[in-house]
Amino acid sequence: MTDAITQVVLEELADVGYGKLTMDAVARRAGSSKPTLYRRWSSKQEMVLDALASVSRPVVPEDDGHDLREHLLELVRAVHAWLSEPLMRKILPDMLAEGLRSDAMDKALTHHIAEPRRAAVKAMMDRATERGEIPEGADVEFALDLLAAPVYWRLCVLRRDVDDAYLAEVADMAYRELTTPRPAGG
Question: How do residues 82-91 score in pLDDT, each as one tens digit?
Fold first, then answer.
């Protein structure tokens, strides 16, 4: 997808929402034609998911000698940057609501947005487990939730500001979850 069309799709989503977005409006706004869009995407849903996936790639820290806690803080900051980007702040709640209305959209959002982001971070955590930074048996799935959910809740639901101290607190919470030894059998 060209950057210009991606931007138009995102702007149109932010302005009118998924339900009112049309291929005609995107083509008009992009200075293109509807047949041009349909040569590339078979549907509005496919076009929107492609645009969202292109700006929703996870930022995963490289194994560069930093410790796990620093990597978690980088991840939380990246989630914050993604969620606080003005277009995404308008688009994501609308798309999540659309996913509640449509099982097909829900599955598509999970496949194109949630799963790739989560898999990339889980791979980083798997490497940290191999290095011994995360003990075997740690609840990695729950820690993955902790990296994004509080930031999403504060920004998109409560509509409150998030500062670096809050992000550090979220990273520390995930770090404790990942590194606190579990009792045997528990």
Answer: 999 999 989 9
The yes-or-no verdict on residue 1 having pLDDT over 70 is: no
| Mean pLDDT within 8-25 | 96
Parts of the chain belonging to CATH 1.10.357.10: 57-179
For the chain, give the mean pLDDT: 90
What's the average model confidence in pLDDT over 20-38?
94
C-alpha distances out from residue 135 to 58, 76, 89, 117, 123, Å:
24, 21, 35, 23, 15
Q: What is the pLDDT of residues 19-28, one digit of tens each?
A: 999 999 999 9
* 78 vs 99: CA distance, rounded Å: 24
Considering the entire predicted model, what is its pTM? 0.85
Please report the DSSP string for 1-61 in residue order: --HHHHHHHHHHHHHH-TTT--HHHHHHHHT--HHHHHHH-SSHHHHHHHHHHHT------
| 89 token code pair | 């702040």
Is 45 in contact with 105 (CB distance < 8 Å)?
Answer: yes
Distances (CA, A) of 144 to 101, 122, 181: 25, 7, 17
* Residues 57-179, CATH architecture: Orthogonal Bundle (1.10)
Q: 3-51, superfamily in CATH?
A: Homeodomain-like (1.10.10.60)
Are 136 and 113 within 8 A, CB to CB? Answer: no
